[in-house]
Amino acid sequence: MKSPKMLVVIIAMIVAFYSFTPTIVKAESEGKIKKIESFIEEQRAISKIPGLSLVIVEKGKTVYQRGFGYADVISKTPVTSNTLFELGSTSKAFTGLAILQLEKEGLLKRSDDVRKYIPWLKLKYNEEPQSITINQLLYHTSGISTYTIADIPESNESNALELTVKKLLEKPLNRIPGSSYEYATLNYDVLGLVIEKVSKQPFEKFIKQQILEPTDMKDTFVGLHQIKSADMASGYKLGLMREQRYTPPIYRGNVPAGYVISNTNDIAKWLNLQLGSNQIDSIDKKIIQESHITDHSVEPFDTDTYYASGWGVMEKDRNQYIFHAGENPTFTSYFIMQPNEQLGVAVLANMNTSFTTAIGQGVMDLWEGKNANNIQSGGPKKMDKIVTFLCVTVIGFGILFSILLLKTLRNIVRKQSIKASLNIKRILLLFIHSLIVATILTLTIMLPKFLGYNWTFMKVWGPTSITVLFYSVIVTSVIYYLLGLLHILTKKAHT
Fold first, then answer.
1. Residue 476 is part of which domain span?
2. Domain Beta-lactamase-related spans what residues (predicted)?
3. Residue 7 has what pLDDT?
4. Are 199 and 54 members of one domain?
């Protein structure tokens, strides 16, 4: 009699346990979600991000998805799961996967010299021609300089990709190929051109047919010229301590490295494909895994972090994290995955800001039951804060000099100041004054070159306050020069 009763009790306990466990799991998830939403709203307020879209996948399912803020601030259009964002450099993983697909088909080898496919791409280091392999382009060890991003030509023409790659012929390599890591976005534009040469079709067509369609990523576009949707978010960047809507030039030649456009509905599918939760017959699981294999022939680019084929891979607390950030002039993104738990997080934002990466990392930490690290204002926000302060200072001096100039002109009109004869002292003062103003203007114009860029690049990629500062310095310098010139060339009239 005891045995049947005991069996009934055990069965009842098992049923109770399994009916109670989902409640616990649900409560834990709800607790995490509340923390995540509070965290995002706090960081969005600090960063001034107009809108962002978040998706979390786990074990093949979308466990959380939500839009925050606005796709367009003026019309108050809310961000939804359908809202489209430029991905920036998280686009590189599509290009990297395409290269591996072509290798599997026997159409190229990653050990090949890139000149096998682009014969005219003859790059030099210290005036010596160099051999650059497909692998070195994938791993950012080609020797191509980070600063070549400033040379990408504005173009929406069909040959824009080739025009972009040809720009590399004007620049020497920054190091010997294969010697060390140096992130350069143009590495992946070269790979995009290789894909065109090998597949004998446009890059965007190959990506659509070989990756997007098999993965059912129907709302993902390869390049802005492909967009046929009203769901595209407006792009913003910081300027004078607030969001500023901005439309940057079109860089069609940079599509393989940074201009895939998507939403979190499709990115959920992309993350699940990467995590092995979404099996696609035409995309070999082994190729996906191979795209996560890192290059250990060079030093890590960060602590315990090496580069793979469009992904960074980090070993942390006995766990592997696969991640990448994306940044365009008015959009940012961040993808991070933890393969052991088949867990992935993606954040898409319609502003150029370093906060998107920090938010993505924070969400991953919170979902794993950790505390989100404190986020410090940095990148564009810190730069904008400094530049805004300089703008206020320079404009303040400009107003002061303008008032003094008007007073000086008034004195001349009223004959209270008259023309002074030039003597050695006044000539010397005129020379020094001219030299000071010329130096200020020269330094202002040349400043981006000292940083490895140019003013066009700074205008497109930097906060809008940089442009304001540039013109403020020019105008204030001219006013200051005229003020000084009048004081040197005139004197008080005798009464």
1. 381-492
2. 37-354
3. 61
4. yes
Helix (H) or strand (E) run with residue 430 in it = helix 424-450
Which three-class secondary structure state does DSSP give residue 132?
A: coil
Q: What is the pLDDT of residues 319-375, one digit of tens each?
A: 899 999 999 999 999 999 999 999 999 999 999 999 999 999 999 999 999 988 756
331 plus 393 within the same structural domain: no
The CB density around residue 2, as the number of other CB atoms within 10 Å, is 6
Which of 324, 353, 377 represents a domain boundary (last residue)? 377
The token pair that represents 381 in the structure block: 């926000």
Residues 367 and 403 in one domain: no
Q: What angle do CA 214, 219, 221 make, to 5 degrees?
A: 85
Distance of alpha carbon 99 from alpha carbon 188, whole angstroms: 10
Between CA 208 and CA 165 the distance in angstroms is: 22
Q: In this structure, is residue 215 part of a structural domain? A: yes
- On whether the CB atoms of residues 182 and 174 are closer than 8 A, the answer is yes
Q: Is 27 exposed, middle or buried (0-12, 13-18, 19+ CB in 10 A)?
A: exposed
SS (H, E, C) 40-98: HHHHHHHHCCCEEEEEEEECCEEEEEEEEEEEECCCCEECCCCCEEECHHHHHHHHHHH
CATH number for the domain including 283? 3.40.710.10
DSSP string, 308-369: -SS-EEEEETTEEEEEEEEE-SS-EEEEEEEGGGTEEEEEEESB--THHHHHHHHHHHHHTT
Residue 158 tokens, joined: 């069909």
| CA distance linking residue 476 with residue 396, whole number of Å | 9
> CA–CA separation, 69 vs 86, rounded Å?
17
Same-domain pairing of 425 and 358: no
Query: Residues near 367 by Cβ (< 8 Å), separated by ≥ 6?
Result: 32, 36, 56, 343, 345
Structural domain includes residue 126? yes
Quick check: is 13 in a domain? no
pTM over 0.90: no
**b/e string for 416-438 if b means 16 or more Cβ within 10 A?**
ebeeeeeeeeeeeeeeebeeebe
| Domain endpoint, select from 377, 397, 414 | 377
Q: Which of 11, 308, 272 is nearest to 181 (CA)?
A: 308
- pLDDT per residue over 121-177, tens digit each? 999 999 999 999 999 999 999 999 999 999 999 999 999 999 999 999 999 999 999
Contact, 324 vs 310, CB < 8 A? yes
